[in-house]
Amino acid sequence: MLRPRARHLSGPRARSSPAPRSAPSPGGHAERPTTRRRERGAVITRLIYAPITSLDGYVADEKGSFDWAAPDDELLAFVNDLERPVGTYLFGRRMYEVMVAWETPDAPEFQTPLLQEFAGLWHAADKVVYSRTLREVSGARTRIERDFDADAVRHMKASAVHDLTVGGPHLAALAFDAGLVDDCHLFLVPVIVGGGTQTLPKHVRIQLELVDEHRFGSGVVHLHYRVRT
Questions:
Q1: Which of 55, 79, 160, 162 has the CB geometry, 3.0–4.6 Å to 45, for a possible disulfide?
Q2: How far apart are CA 26 and CA 59, in angstroms?
Q3: Euclidean distance between CA atoms 185 and 85, whole angstroms
Q4: Distance of alpha carbon 33 from alpha carbon 65, whole angstroms
């Protein structure tokens, strides 16, 4: 999940074979390939958790900062390829308030081709925000759900044409606990921050299979795990 730079969280692939790049559509939104897969005759989509994390397992430090996780162009291109097949983002309130900056991609800090490409992917996707306090959302293709209903998310996965991602460790913990997460993409940044918001949930035991790995020139390592069933 590509968080905008200079944002904070309040409160405590060998490279995989991503979908081929497609040029943005005339309306500025990147085209999104269909990602429904067949496994044992059944057509499925996947729920993906893909955090950029410190080596000691935090998505943000004790001050809520994640400036140390800002990707370079090589990593950003890889993240864009990974995000391209995603059709729905699931967020908690705090992560949504960080990510909603992508609703205004004309901001000066987004004026590079790769960031504009990600902004197009963001605009093309549906967003679901789980919050009991948020009254309204400022972005298009976005709706609020008051509670995280695991059965409703299972139905969403079963009926989806594209993959889904869960953004933010708190919501991801609920998804892991409910057995909803299919794939985990960890981007390990070569930094130790000493504390903050943990990337992975506590008190959850899940068997994983290493599917792929990739090392970037910056020292970031990507590990793609699939949940064993």
A1: 160
A2: 35
A3: 14
A4: 33
CA-derived radius of gyration, the chain: 17
**From CA 64, how far away is CA 9, in angstroms rounded?**
5
Q: Distance between CA atoms of 57 and 52, rounded to whole angstroms?
A: 9
User: Domain boundaries in the chain?
Assistant: 41-227
DSSP state at residue 124: H
For residue 199, give the H/E element and its range: none
State the alpha helices, DSSP H only, in 13-163: 73-83, 93-99, 113-124, 150-159
Residue type, 151: D
Write the pLDDT tens digit of every residue in 25-49. Answer: 333 444 444 445 555 555 579 999 9
Q: What is the token pair recorded at 214?
A: 């990739």
| Dihedrals phi, psi of 163, to nearest 5 degrees | -65, 165
Q: What is the pLDDT of residues 110-142, one digit of tens each?
A: 778 998 899 899 999 999 999 999 999 988 899
Could you give the CA distance from residue 22 to residue 136 in angstroms, rounded to a whole number? 33
Q: What are 107-114's contacts with CB under 8 Å, separation 24+? A: 109/4, 109/5, 109/6, 110/4, 112/73, 114/73, 114/76, 114/77, 114/80
CATH number of the domain located at residue range(s) 41-227 in this protein: 3.40.430.10
Q: Closest Cα to residue 35, out of 168, 210, 157, 140?
A: 157
Strands of 5-116 (E only): list them.
37-39, 42-44, 47-49, 52-54, 58-60, 86-92
